[in-house]
Amino acid sequence: MRLSLGIVTGFLGLKSFAASENTVKPRQINGTDYKVGFTPLKTNWTDTVGTSPWPEYPRPRMQRPKWKNLNGVWRYRNTTDSSLESPPFGQALEKPVLVPFCLESALSGVTGKNRIWSWYQTSFDVPSSWKASGNSVLLNFGAVDYEATIFVNGHKAGFHRGGYFEFSVDVTSYLKANGANELLVYTFDPTDMDKVQIPIGKQSLWRSDMIWYTPCSGIWQTVWLESTPTEHIAKIDLVADMHGQVNVTVHSNSNSNIAYEITVHELNSDDAKKIANGITGTPFIFTVDSPQLWTPDTPTLYNISIRYGSDIVQSYTGFRTVSRGVIGNVQRPLLNGEFVFPFGTLDQGYWPDGIYTAPSVEAMSYDLKVLKNVGYNMVRKHVKVEPALYYRACDEMGILVIQDMPSLRPQVDGVGQLDPAAQPEFNRQLALLVEQLKSYPSIFAWTIYNEEWGQATSPPWPEFGLSDMVRSLDPTRLINAVSGWWDHGAADFMDNHHYTTPQCGTPLWYNYDPADTSGHNAGYDPSRIGLQGEFGGIGTKVDFNHSWYKTLDGQSAYKLADDILHWNYLAGNLLTQLREQVEEFACSGGVWTQTTDVEGEVNGMMTYDRSIIRMNTTMFKDEIQALYAAAAKRANKTETE
Ligand SMILES: *[C@@H]1O[C@H](CO)[C@@H](O)[C@H](O)[C@H]1NC(C)=O
Ligand SMILES: *[C@@H]1O[C@H](CO)[C@@H](O)[C@H](O)[C@H]1NC(C)=O
Ligand SMILES: *[C@@H]1O[C@H](CO)[C@@H](O)[C@H](O)[C@H]1NC(C)=O
Ligand SMILES: *[C@@H]1O[C@H](CO)[C@@H](O)[C@H](O)[C@H]1NC(C)=O
Ligand SMILES: *[C@@H]1O[C@H](CO)[C@@H](O)[C@H](O)[C@H]1NC(C)=O
Ligand SMILES: *[C@@H]1O[C@H](CO)[C@@H](O)[C@H](O)[C@H]1NC(C)=O
Ligand SMILES: *[C@@H]1O[C@H](CO)[C@@H](O)[C@H](O)[C@H]1NC(C)=O
Ligand SMILES: *[C@@H]1O[C@H](CO)[C@@H](O)[C@H](O)[C@H]1NC(C)=O
Hints:
Elements: E1 7-8, E2 67-69, E3 72-78, E4 95-99, E5 117-124, E6 135-141, E7 144-145, E8 147-152, E9 155-161, E10 167-170, E11 181-188, E12 218-219, E13 223-229, E14 233-240, E15 245-252, E16 259-265, E17 272-279, E18 284-287, E19 302-308, E20 311-317, E21 322-327, E22 330-335, E23 338-339, E24 343-347, H1 361-373, E25 378-381, H2 388-397, E26 400-404, H3 423-437, E27 443-450, H4 462-473, E28 478-483, E29 493-497, E30 529-536, E31 538-540, E32 559-561, H5 564-584, E33 587-593, H6 617-634
Parallel strand pairs: 1-10, 24-25, 24-33, 25-26, 26-27, 27-28, 29-30, 30-33, 31-32
Antiparallel strand pairs: 2-13, 3-4, 3-5, 5-11, 6-10, 6-13, 7-12, 8-9, 8-11, 14-15, 15-18, 16-17, 16-19, 19-20, 21-22, 22-23
Bound molecules: 2-acetamido-2-deoxy-beta-D-glucopyranose (NAG) (8 copies).
GO biological process, one term: carbohydrate metabolic process
Keywords: Glycosidase, Hydrolase, Signal
Domain Glycoside hydrolase family 2 immunoglobulin-like beta-sandwich: 236-320
């Protein structure tokens, strides 16, 4: 498969929207009419966001010193599909919008519904020190849902499709010699309207039952500029294993095959631990002596510098090996050659004020800290992709990530589960997902399908070919081809979702039969790893100061407990059942539903505003350690890793 590196260059052969530089006069932007929109529920961070949100350096795996954040108050116009033919160059768009919060969110200030077609507008200056000849200016987007067309000073500069992926546009040739540059972004996001079937995860324009949430449209991650040499590094693929072997491919923007120098630094020092020289565009293998290994308990990260011509970037990695092996006659997931019991939450990544975007990096990290504090060593990032800083936080804190592909809309009216026409684009975006995230040390496994959403229901089963594709793009992680429901034997896990009674790696409920295509075939397959990919899901109704819906009827869960005491009693029972399945059967990991309440779903470890922690943290700590101890005992280890 041909891979896109996410770099969008000029638009050869397409209709030119060029207007001469002189005819486009960017208007002055001001944010005085911006205010946070209405949300039924605030977080403690809502009113601290201000008008310079997400100021942090957004791309920790490839840092360059000269950069400029464009987040802030831009202008916005709700529009129609035909307006792409006549971009509003040099006009004042009516409404303010706070980038990078999606149009449906309160923090965007738009708080819109049905925002299908939109114009965004801002202007920017390029620092004069960036303008030396031999330099390029890249305009970077963390993510825009779903399509983005970029215009700079009246020129069409780029286009990107896919709501979850970072992309860059080289805007050097469109910049003015002096003064402000006008940036217009046209976005189109159909989500699940009419019969559209594109990767959307849990967003829905029309579903109202509890597990579907508010959609997210438009720009929803940091927008920023950087200065690079004209010939520069475009992407770094890098994994480092438990033996100190580093496998790196440095891609240049010109697809060159030219020498570069890579330095792995000593811990807490600029000194070199290892210096090696590779060639761009091709895998390069070298070894670092006795690195400290990355594990959830010791998440050691090594700084890396790469010098390619005059381009110097900072990166990092962790040394660890993810694999699968038989221990005591049972298929197990292994980290650094030992059985690791991944135990985490279903992590939706929704916020009542920012919808798809946490109000701040601090807020985003707060969730992870709460989970880590009670001993979870994993998150299942559920049918969503997070900003790079989330994965960096998992790398730093020692949290394994099971990364789901954002699912297609589960059902197209009257057409069955999958519109076959949607498959190629799903496949292309699955490759983008793996390419974007495969170099983060915390990534542990990939999930291709969740609960049959957008999964073909008759042969040939697409998950076999897609598992092969994912394996070829990233041979260093495990693959959960099908999380829940229709399993046909592909890839590494037998993952069964059972909310009220966990059924993990046990033959007691159903016998696994790969030939059975009749229904939910969810037993135990001894040739693969037994995983409880979702369980828990119990909730309590929430007082309206902490709930999204202000009616009790609007609040639901797979099972509702009367109060938090009862919730913890039920949670303790479920955790005990899972532990027994570790002790007696072949259970090798679990995913508790879920990190927080989301909208009408009141089954989080925390409420949606993160203010009430349902967990009895003492009990959860004890029960989670008991799971790890049970797993260690099955591997005859005397202590947990
Ligand atoms: C800011 O923009 C708004 C909307 O265009 C306008 O009404 C207001 O006068 C502007 N304020 C300043 C200080 O320019
Ligand atoms: C915005 O446009 C959509 C259609 O694209 C329409 O449904 C919606 O009502 C519009 N909203 C406003 C405020 O104009
Ligand atoms: C290095 O990584 C590339 C790209 O993922 C892969 O094709 C290759 O097999 C790897 N080499 C080794 C020795 O692991
Ligand atoms: C990596 O580099 C950063 C920035 O120079 C520094 O703050 C950090 O301590 C370094 N990390 C390690 C493990 O040396
Ligand atoms: C653990 O020890 C028991 C008793 O010696 C043995 O039967 C079992 O196979 C061992 N399991 C593993 C995973 O080594
Ligand atoms: C909800 O908040 C209001 C205002 O702060 C407060 O007066 C009320 O007591 C709170 N309700 C509950 C149930 O805590
Ligand atoms: C938010 O503030 C309230 C009141 O100070 C506090 O009780 C709550 O724990 C805070 N929540 C978070 C997530 O910090
Ligand atoms: C929390 O759990 C611990 C350990 O199970 C228990 O001793 C304690 O009483 C519980 N606390 C509450 C408030 O239920």
